Amino acid sequence: MANTKLTYITGNIFDAPPNTILIHACNTVGSWGAGIALAFQSKYPHAYNVYKAHCAAHTNDELIGTCLVIRGKPVAEGEKGHDIACLFTSRAYGRRRDGPEDILNATRGAVRDLLRQNGEGKPLHAW
Contact at 8 Å (CB) between 125 and 23? Predict the structure, then answer.
Protein backbone atom coordinates (compact mmCIF):
# COMPACT_ATOMS: atom_id res chain seq x y z
CA MET A 1 0.00 0.00 0.00
CA ALA A 2 1.25 3.44 -0.87
CA ASN A 3 1.68 6.06 1.82
CA THR A 4 -1.32 8.33 1.61
CA LYS A 5 -1.97 11.52 3.49
CA LEU A 6 -5.47 11.88 4.91
CA THR A 7 -6.43 15.52 5.42
CA TYR A 8 -9.19 16.62 7.80
CA ILE A 9 -10.56 20.03 6.88
CA THR A 10 -13.37 22.00 8.45
CA GLY A 11 -15.58 23.46 5.75
CA ASN A 12 -17.26 22.44 2.53
CA ILE A 13 -15.89 19.11 1.26
CA PHE A 14 -16.78 20.13 -2.29
CA ASP A 15 -14.23 22.96 -2.08
CA ALA A 16 -11.38 20.42 -1.80
CA PRO A 17 -8.43 21.07 -4.14
CA PRO A 18 -8.52 19.65 -7.68
CA ASN A 19 -7.43 16.05 -8.26
CA THR A 20 -8.32 14.78 -4.80
CA ILE A 21 -10.53 11.94 -3.63
CA LEU A 22 -13.67 12.86 -1.69
CA ILE A 23 -14.60 10.10 0.75
CA HIS A 24 -18.01 9.30 2.17
CA ALA A 25 -19.74 6.33 3.75
CA CYS A 26 -22.44 4.65 1.67
CA ASN A 27 -25.05 1.96 2.00
CA THR A 28 -25.07 -1.05 -0.31
CA VAL A 29 -28.61 -0.55 -1.65
CA GLY A 30 -27.84 2.28 -4.06
CA SER A 31 -29.45 5.17 -2.20
CA TRP A 32 -27.94 8.63 -1.76
CA GLY A 33 -31.21 10.06 -0.50
CA ALA A 34 -30.34 12.19 2.54
CA GLY A 35 -27.63 14.20 4.26
CA ILE A 36 -24.19 14.45 2.68
CA ALA A 37 -25.05 11.61 0.29
CA LEU A 38 -27.85 13.70 -1.21
CA ALA A 39 -25.41 16.59 -1.62
CA PHE A 40 -23.02 14.22 -3.46
CA GLN A 41 -25.89 13.09 -5.71
CA SER A 42 -26.75 16.68 -6.57
CA LYS A 43 -23.13 17.77 -7.16
CA TYR A 44 -21.95 14.61 -8.97
CA PRO A 45 -24.94 13.00 -10.76
CA HIS A 46 -22.65 10.88 -12.96
CA ALA A 47 -20.97 9.42 -9.86
CA TYR A 48 -24.37 8.64 -8.38
CA ASN A 49 -25.39 6.74 -11.52
CA VAL A 50 -22.15 4.72 -11.41
CA TYR A 51 -22.67 3.99 -7.69
CA LYS A 52 -26.31 2.96 -8.20
CA ALA A 53 -25.42 0.62 -11.10
CA HIS A 54 -22.56 -0.88 -9.05
CA CYS A 55 -24.96 -1.61 -6.20
CA ALA A 56 -27.47 -3.19 -8.58
CA ALA A 57 -24.77 -5.47 -10.03
CA HIS A 58 -23.61 -6.84 -6.65
CA THR A 59 -25.15 -8.31 -3.53
CA ASN A 60 -25.04 -6.50 -0.21
CA ASP A 61 -22.59 -9.08 1.13
CA GLU A 62 -20.28 -8.60 -1.86
CA LEU A 63 -20.18 -4.83 -1.32
CA ILE A 64 -19.98 -4.45 2.46
CA GLY A 65 -16.47 -3.51 3.58
CA THR A 66 -15.31 -2.51 0.09
CA CYS A 67 -14.72 0.80 -1.66
CA LEU A 68 -15.86 1.99 -5.07
CA VAL A 69 -13.64 4.75 -6.47
CA ILE A 70 -15.44 6.71 -9.17
CA ARG A 71 -13.10 8.78 -11.32
CA GLY A 72 -14.05 12.42 -11.76
CA LYS A 73 -14.00 14.49 -14.90
CA PRO A 74 -10.67 16.17 -15.68
CA VAL A 75 -10.05 19.76 -14.59
CA ALA A 76 -9.77 20.67 -18.29
CA GLU A 77 -13.48 19.87 -18.70
CA GLY A 78 -14.48 22.51 -16.18
CA GLU A 79 -14.68 20.11 -13.25
CA LYS A 80 -12.48 20.06 -10.18
CA GLY A 81 -11.26 16.58 -11.02
CA HIS A 82 -12.63 15.12 -7.79
CA ASP A 83 -12.78 11.36 -7.58
CA ILE A 84 -15.49 9.99 -5.30
CA ALA A 85 -14.72 7.13 -2.89
CA CYS A 86 -17.81 5.28 -1.74
CA LEU A 87 -17.03 3.35 1.44
CA PHE A 88 -19.64 0.60 1.76
CA THR A 89 -20.18 0.67 5.51
CA SER A 90 -23.80 -0.50 5.95
CA ARG A 91 -26.23 -2.81 4.20
CA ALA A 92 -29.12 -0.38 4.72
CA TYR A 93 -29.77 3.20 5.81
CA GLY A 94 -31.82 5.14 8.31
CA ARG A 95 -33.30 3.10 11.14
CA ARG A 96 -32.47 -0.15 9.34
CA ARG A 97 -28.74 0.58 9.05
CA ASP A 98 -26.28 -1.90 10.50
CA GLY A 99 -25.21 -1.64 14.14
CA PRO A 100 -22.22 0.47 15.20
CA GLU A 101 -19.80 -2.46 15.55
CA ASP A 102 -20.70 -3.84 12.11
CA ILE A 103 -20.34 -0.36 10.57
CA LEU A 104 -16.94 0.10 12.20
CA ASN A 105 -15.72 -3.28 10.92
CA ALA A 106 -17.00 -2.52 7.41
CA THR A 107 -15.35 0.91 7.53
CA ARG A 108 -11.98 -0.65 8.34
CA GLY A 109 -12.23 -2.97 5.36
CA ALA A 110 -13.45 -0.22 3.04
CA VAL A 111 -10.61 2.13 4.02
CA ARG A 112 -8.07 -0.65 3.42
CA ASP A 113 -9.64 -1.21 0.00
CA LEU A 114 -9.49 2.53 -0.76
CA LEU A 115 -5.81 2.73 0.18
CA ARG A 116 -5.08 -0.30 -2.02
CA GLN A 117 -6.83 1.36 -4.97
CA ASN A 118 -5.16 4.74 -4.47
CA GLY A 119 -1.92 3.71 -6.15
CA GLU A 120 -1.39 7.25 -7.45
CA GLY A 121 -1.24 8.55 -3.88
CA LYS A 122 -3.90 11.21 -4.49
CA PRO A 123 -4.78 13.32 -1.44
CA LEU A 124 -7.86 12.08 0.43
CA HIS A 125 -10.52 14.39 1.89
CA ALA A 126 -13.06 12.89 4.30
CA TRP A 127 -16.28 14.35 5.56
Answer: yes
